[in-house]
Design goal:
globular; 5 helices; alpha/beta; 208 residues; Rossmann fold; seven-stranded mixed beta sheet
Length: 208
């Protein structure tokens, strides 16, 4: 059973999506990811967007660890219902409505949000069959709505190619955990380089 790993709601079990419609992030990958994000100072008071949320496990973990707001975006009915259950669990634990659920296709949701700095951290765990061109389109929309010092994390199969990053994002590293690979990107500055001119050290191509 999946659980919240750390923070105010640490140890609380999470509801899972029945069947095989979604592919949950393993606790091992989740723990490694959030240890990295915590080290980078990307969680506390952050505005977080969890796309293709599934059960919402990534987003509610962020809320437990101190994120200011979290939006879970999921289109599949059963998965969205599980997101609602897990959101209520964490909201009760943190004593505020930190997590909200948007039942919507990712593209439709992003189209309704005007460009501007809306999120500090965007977590994306798209279904593996999602085409690379479709993924790039979503990343392009995300880049237009990311804070200047924001971060995007894309979870894909270890056998999938590197995402084709749009002009607004710069890939600066990755992590591999068994069959899962995490890709990290940040906003591009002038000339297409990382916004800080050097890139972050969050993932420097290491594997685990």
């Amino acid at each position: 059973m999946s659980r919240i790993i750390s923070g105010i709601a640490g140890g609380v079990p999470l509801a899972a999506v029945p069947g095989t419609a979604t592919r949950p992030t393993t606790d091992r990958v989740k723990e490694a990811l959030f240890s990295r994000l915590d080290a980078l100072g990307m969680i506390a008071r952050a505005r977080v967007l969890d796309l293709y949320a599934g059960s919402g496990a990534l987003g509610v973990e962020a809320a437990s660890r101190g994120a200011s707001t979290v939006e879970l975006v999921e289109s599949e009915a059963k998965a969205a219902q599980v997101c609602e259950r897990n959101a209520r669990t964490v909201n009760d634990a943190v004593s505020r409505r930190a997590v909200t659920v948007r039942r919507s296709k990712v593209n439709s949701f992003l189209e309704r949000v005007p460009p501007g700095a809306h999120w500090d951290l965007v977590l994306m765990d798209p279904p593996y069959p999602l085409g690379e061109a479709q993924l790039t389109n979503v990343l392009d929309a995300v880049a237009e709505r990311l804070a200047p010092d924001g971060l995007v994390v894309v979870e894909r199969s270890a056998r999938s190619p590197e995402p084709s990053w749009p002009e607004g994002l710069v890939h600066f590293g990755e992590r591999k955990y068994g069959e899962t690979r995490l890709w990290f990107a940040e906003p591009a500055g002038e000339g297409g380089e990382a916004a800080d001119g050097e890139g972050s050290s969050a993932a420097e191509g290491a594997t685990a």
